[in-house]
């Protein structure tokens, strides 16, 4: 089922939780709603489910305007962070609940039992149908919750931080498992997370929200390699930045020209953003700007260097090969393999000011 969200608004008092969101969700895709706490992810998910009534805009399920439809009529499957299994019911009865009490045609107990056992097989919990939720681990309970959501053959599957309460190791396992289930079942799935790694690894596309605004929608590669706004650049992956002044497409830093080539944003104050892996050290005077190493620490297979730049000690971070012979206090030129230039955020942030290019 394809979803179209048009100019969706939700205000809590004077506070705009959703600021006119437009988003097309393709049939069969797994899309992540990603953003920091309070960005509007859950509000958007609940509006899709029909649990929240918007103050403006529309939500289409296919060609059908579902904006005024009840939760029951939208026929969505929902899994929350805090598993909402019925504690007094066995796993089998939990999964069967929607089939027994839902809107669909009545089914015989034999059919229901067969379907529950198939779903238990799908979520890899064969043999646990007779247990109560208290006799399951947190990860197993979330699998039961997913089986229950799938049991009603939902038009759309909505997942709100379903692994949020579980430890990191279990989360990683469940992430792979969920992707596999998605590939087998093909439900249109909307997944809320504030964990960028989870969003990038799991989804076909990522929708990044910030303060109720949809900042960018794209594949994980597009979001990481071509962030559309300074917020997306800073939120996804590591980066540091330098304040610049842009005049006729040329950037200056602390009054001196910055040899990064032509930049696109309009004249005025802006920032050049760089990812640590895109900074390389060259001889002083040969790079975009000179800097002095003020910190070095090991980071996985790399060494992470803190480099002070300019008179006001702005900080640039670089990932260096550990065998590179550098020490605190060394002076270098910094070359940027890639960077992005943005005009300073003028409210609200607008798409399309980015320019990512090879450094000159
Ligand atoms: N019922 C409510 N009444 C008032 N304000 C609310 C209500 N629900 C949410 N908000 C506010 O709306 C904003 C968006 O909330 P939402 O829960 O959608 O954010 P989120 O991105 O899902 O955050 P989190 O990751 O913390 O769950 C927040 O600032 C929140 O405080």
Automatic annotation (TrEMBL):
The keyword Nucleotide-binding applies. GO terms for molecular function: ABC-type sulfate transporter activity; ATP binding; ATP hydrolysis activity. It comes from the Bacteria. SMART domains: AAA (SM00382). InterPro entries: AAA+_ATPase, ABC_SmlMolc_Importer, ABC_transporter-like_ATP-bd, ABC_transporter-like_CS, Mo/tungstate-bd_C_term_dom, P-loop_NTPase, Sulph_transpt1. Residues 3-236 form the ABC transporter domain. Pfam families: ABC_tran. GO terms for cellular component: ATP-binding cassette (ABC) transporter complex. Keywords: ATP-binding, Nucleotide-binding, Sulfate transport, Translocase, Transport. Belongs to the ABC transporter superfamily. This is Sulfate ABC transporter ATP-binding protein.
């Amino acid at each position: 089922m394809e979803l179209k969200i048009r100019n969706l608004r939700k205000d809590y008092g004077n506070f705009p939780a959703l600021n006119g969101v437009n988003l097309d969700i393709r049939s069969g895709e797994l899309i992540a709603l990603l953003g920091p706490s309070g960005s509007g992810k859950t509000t958007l998910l609940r509006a899709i489910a029909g649990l929240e009534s918007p103050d403006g805009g529309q939500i289409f399920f296919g060609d059908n305007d579902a904006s005024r439809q009840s939760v029951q009529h939208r026929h969505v499957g929902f899994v929350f962070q805090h598993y909402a299994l019925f504690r007094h019911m066995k796993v089998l009865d939990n999964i069967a609940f929607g089939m027994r009490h839902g809107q669909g045609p009545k089914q015989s107990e034999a059919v229901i039992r067969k379907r529950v056992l198939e779903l238990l097989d799908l979520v890899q919990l064969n043999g646990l149908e007779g247990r109560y939720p208290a006799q399951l681990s947190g990860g197993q309970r979330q699998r039961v919750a997913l089986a229950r959501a799938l049991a009603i053959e939902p038009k759309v599957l909505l997942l709100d931080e379903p692994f949020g309460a579980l430890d990191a190791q279990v989360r990683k396992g469940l992430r792979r498992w969920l992707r596999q289930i998605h590939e087998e079942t093909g439900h249109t799935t909307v997944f809320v997370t504030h964990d960028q790694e989870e969003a990038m690894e799991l989804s076909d596309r990522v929708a990044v929200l910030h303060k109720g605004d949809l900042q960018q929608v794209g594949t994980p590669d597009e979001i990481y390699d071509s962030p559309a706004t300074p917020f997306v650049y800073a939120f996804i992956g590591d980066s540091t930045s330098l304040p610049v002044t842009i005049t006729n497409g040329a950037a200056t830093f602390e009054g001196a020209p910055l040899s990064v080539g032509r930049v696109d944003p309009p004249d005025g104050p802006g920032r050049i953003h760089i990812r640590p892996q895109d900074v390389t050290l060259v001889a002083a005077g040969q790079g975009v700007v000179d800097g002095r190493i003020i910190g070095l620490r090991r980071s996985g297979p790399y060494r992470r260097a803190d480099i002070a730049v300019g008179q006001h000690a702005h900080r640039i971070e670089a990932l260096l090969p550990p065998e590179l012979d550098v020490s605190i206090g060394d002076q270098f030129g910094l070359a940027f393999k890639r960077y992005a230039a943005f005009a300073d955020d003028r409210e609200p942030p607008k798409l399309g000011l980015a320019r990512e290019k090879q450094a000159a």
